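Hello again,

I reread your note about wanting to compare the complex against the isolated chains. To keep things tidy I'm splitting this into two emails, and this first one only covers the full assembly. Below are the input lines as submitted, including protein chains and any nucleic acid or small-molecule components. They are followed by the predicted structure of everything together. The single-chain runs will come separately.
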Amino acid sequence: MPEATYLDANELVINMGPQHPATHGVLRVKLRLDGERVLGTECIIGYLHRGVEKIAENRTYVQFAPYVDRMDYVAAVTNGMGYCEAVEKLMGVELPPRAQYTRMILAELQRIASHLLWLGTHALDIGAMTPVFYTFREREEILKIFENYCGARLTTHAFRIGGLQYDLYDGFEKDATKFCDYLLPKIDEYEELLSTNRIWMNRTKKVGVLSGKDAIALGVTGPVLRGSGVKWDIRKVQPYEAYDKVEFEIPTGQNGDTYDRYIVRIQEMRQSVRIIRQSVERLAPGPIFGKVGKVIKPPAAEVYHSIEAPKGELGYFVVSDGSTHPYRVRVRPPSFVNLEALDIMSRGHLVADIVAIIGTLDIVLGEVDR
Amino acid sequence: MVAEVTFFILSALALGSAVMVITRRNPVHSALWLIVTLFSVGGVFLILRAPFLFAVQIILYVGGIMVLIIFVIMLVSVDVSGRQQQFSRQWLVGLTTVLILAAELGYALYRGSKGFLLARSAPAAALENNTQAIGTALYQNYMLPVEIASILLLVAMVGAVLMAKRKME
Amino acid sequence: MADEPKAPPSGGPSEPPAKSPEAPEGAAPPAKPAGKPPAPAGKPPAPAPKPAVKPEPWSSPLLDELQKRFPEAISDPLIFRKQPSIVVAKESLLGVCEFLKSDRGGSYTLLTDETAVDYPKREKRFDVIYHLYSFQRNDRLRLKVLVGEGEKVPSVVGVWLTADWLEREVFDMFGVQYEGHPNLKRILLPDDWTGHPLRKDYDILRQDDAWVQANLNIKSGQ
Amino acid sequence: MLQNVLQFLNDHYLILATIKILIVFAVLLGIVAYLVLMERKVLAFMQARLGPMRVGPWGLLQPIADGLKLLLKEDIVPAGADKFIFLLAPVISIIAAFTVFAVIPFGPPDKGFVISDINIGLLFILAVSSLGIYGIILGGWSSNSHYPLLGALRSSAQLVSYEVAAGLAVIGVLLCANSLSMVEIVKNQQAAGIWNVFRQPVAFIIYLIAAVAETNRNPFDLPEAESELTAGFHTEYSGFRFALYFMAEYTAMVLVSAIAVTLFWGGWLRPFASVHWLNFLDYTPVVVFLGAGVVVILGSIKNPVPGEKLFLFAVAGLCFFLAVVVAIPPVNAWIQGVFWFVAKVMVFLYAFIWYRGTFPRYRYDQLMNVGWRVMIPVGLANIIVTAVVIYWWSKPHAAAAATLLFR
Amino acid sequence: MGLKELLRRIFLLDLVQGLRLTFSYQRPSATYTEQYPRERPPVAERYRGAPRLNNNPETGETLCIACNLCSLACPENLIVVGWERTEDRRKKLTTFTYDVSRCMFCGLCEDACPVDALELTQDFEIANYTREGMIWDRDLLEAGPQPVRYSR
Amino acid sequence: MMPIPPTWCVYLGTGLFTIGVIGVLTRRNVIIILMSIELILNAVNINLVAFSRYFGEVDGQIFAIFVITDAAAEAAVGLGLLIALFRNKETVNADEIDLLKW
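Full-complex prediction:
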């Protein structure tokens, strides 16, 4: 681009990433700029492509389970839960309540952890460097619970097809409740730091606006969709596990801008706390495995199952040919589809807003690229 | 003595960098040399007991106008014009004119330099610490010109903004 | 790479799943390979070894409406685990999609996912699969389009914007060509990649070996 | 003997000035180095962390290690860069930052705590600090890279606009003090018995915001916004030249703090300098050094590593020694001005770090809006109000105006 | 915008409350950092770390019965079990390699082991200078992880 | 201390002025032409200040201040023109600004 200028006589093409502090991984965004105004973006992804779907075809159902943790590596528990449930659905296995509630508690903890991580990095992108340390501190408490429960902090491999690998450790209930009590005031602190701060409001309001209609057309799901005012949460509309037995609300935004998505995620953390509290109360001793055989061998059929992952609808489409190996596992990653909206959301904004928009989409490149 | 030597050094610096200004290919280099010139002229102001003007020279010229110019140079692409021909088509005519002008000026100065030896040269301390004097003069004797200048600045500012603005969508 | 189990180990006693929460070691079913080597790739749904729920024929008002509007186009309506799926003829795919998206057709406004499955032994080897969701009906619907090698599928980007990247991914991974896609190029893999990895006949080692042979001058890196 | 030396220095003011410059330069270097450590530590505590802990006890030797590292790193000049300007730019930055200290009074001038008290001091400050921008803009341009160029363009626009705001804020002080000399401004506050911050609160806030913006600190750190422009104008710099930029930034922080203290917080004056029953405050330096010594002693007792223990003991000893020295009345009197000046500057520096630990970053256009639509109009209004008030308070003018209005 | 909100904005209260929060966090008790090599973090009982091949504590013989289940369970195929038949037709373990560099610590091998021979221990310091050093043989596995204790 | 003879300043001013005029008349790049104009204005300022010094009055300096003000206005307008020009014609060459030539 030797003739590049900063006037509209010519466009400037800037390459953001794959090594860039604000692209949350190895995302490469080509920005067409007019001055600092963005005319268009093009995402170049695939730097982290590992062929997860191909790996699945060469593993047994059980063996593939650890791999799904590595897609959305900041929300491994929900990933694993979605996969296990998809296979269970294929086999028609019903889980005992203890396993269901355990899964729900861990998944909601994971949702909080994912949102915390999102909040920290998003704030860091917008220039507030402190929240990231606070949120990581809170996330650490969740990871400690995970470590105590299943022995791993990040890529947990917490669940097995048909139930749980581990029963809860002694004191889990206490830990979970204690964490809930600990978290709520901390969320208030984040809000104190950011929600009413004029700089934060300037930076996020009216940035990356997505109307409800556009959001559906673009296929975005999760908090991004809810931020645009569409009250849709798979936990409510197509409940899995025991989500139909607990009470919680679906927070939504009105304007569909970055600020609304921020508020939605903050509120979701509070709702998750509610779910955790109710689930802990309902934990009763009992079996932790459904009726599955030692060998996982689902019938020859295909099934699509999706759950509400922290980032949106995480779907697994599993095709079985009746053997121990899946014939095909398709992952419908929320980040991938949400990232597609970046181009439309970022048109006409400034470079600084691109950073905010990428942040607000809450993508994880491990999941985008798989 | 010190003043004379300083004056000579500053003059040489001013003239030399002025020549660099008009001969450099890259406008950024030109601008940098112009800054050197401006600094030297500012130094001359100091020798001439005009510290306020020195400050104004630095603040306005170096800190304001030149930053603006460099800003614009970076805004418009210089790579293209840097590779093209540097001097205009009429450069020969222009140069000749200027040389004639310079010769005339030189001759006039040479002949008239006696006239500059003024009858009443002010005492050295007459202009010491003149900031207050300048302020008083500006806002009392020259009130109207100041207002006119401020209107000029306002017009220039509005004009510049309008011209540099993009077309309304 | 491919971990084909070499020899069948002595089959362990198949006991009901352990339920003791105190013994995590024995709680999970050990990942044992099947009693026989896995079904050769490409043989579509092999006979299930144990009796299981099978997909059943599906019937619903929507299906009737569809069949009325697009006779010929709709076939194989099946339902499994409450998930209906239909096979749509390639030619009328766009029409069906437009209809399904409209209010009369159930307003399936959200294209959740688009993907493909490769059955190399079949005459038309690819199933291109669309998962639709209707906010109004709170219902999902699976469309399948059977595509042969080298055939082109009409792109649904005009119907659902989401399909843009998803179709690019299917193209990248399976080599399914789309007609009318604005920007059909590889998305996850580099542009100069050869082959389409999610096809069943794709040799996983090929790319690796090619690189090794070109750069290190040895036959195989594995 | 001492008399002779002093006499000699008085006669040869150039030599005296050189010595002062060297002292100020050395002290500033030290302050800047430890300011970096202070920033890291304070930020860390605000963020529930510890900060550097590995080099020396509590990371006390970290600045030295950092400096060594930066000096020894490779000095990379990118291909296609304008080499001369690339090498020159950081030097301009740091020279501009250091030069201004020439007119800052660190203490009472009769005790020699100012390098040069020139009568256009304030103008000199504005003039030289406006040069610092060249370091940034040329560095960004000469790197021949997109991100630095964007950073440079941003910073030039930002600095030019906020310089106007800072200038307007300063004019309020000028109107009060009737002088451009920094020393006179402080003396005026002494005479008035009140700091300018109370006479000109609006001007102070405008100056504070403009100062943060001019030093490219959060929330106005757009030229080097790491999440957008990687590192802004110094993306391509490495090693020693990067260190120069780094030092320039922190020196500029010290500088604007020093200016703010001089203009608004009474410079070297003790708080309530005119209230005599508060004279015991003169012994605050002693208390401060003693307190520091006690803290260090406590830390050294807890420290398990013998070498570090020893080091901390030495530091504590130094603190106690200084406390004793400062307690000597003549020394105490001599040190007063500087102590209060440094203490006030530290408060400002802490505030800078504090902002960085708290606020998100403005966007470019919002920054410009704040500058042009809020700060400059408010600054202008402040000047007008100040001028009117001063006019009415000076009796003869009031009388004249009254006759003008009501004749 | 109500009057209250307007006053809040003029007096910068929204910024001040943030400043108050960060200021209050400076108390030493709020510090969360662990100084890792000096302080060792507590590791959960179920932690899946470096692998170990257990011996019978009484006889000192290996517990492994060379059933190869771990190798089959491993998604990454990184366990290689070598055995030979003894005279009484029983399998006897000869070699056992475990490639830690490829391991993702999913714990499937541990689950598969019928005799508690293979175990993922609580040790997490498995870094090594070479790739070859990450391939652990039977001796290393039986000795268990021997992490370097850093000290000054 | 003897003041510097005004002749010296006048010579310096003349030199700067001539160089500035050469720049204006011969260079193609509009930006450099603008900068040459600044040179000319500076030459004028030197004279003004020099004579102010010798008459012991501040009026010359006042005029110099007005000249600098003027220079600022000129730079703003000139650069505004330049940007408008560049946006339309993608050039900074004076030779190519010939729309009004006939």
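For quick reference: The interface with chain A takes residues 83, 86-87, 90 of chain F (CB under 8 Å).

B.
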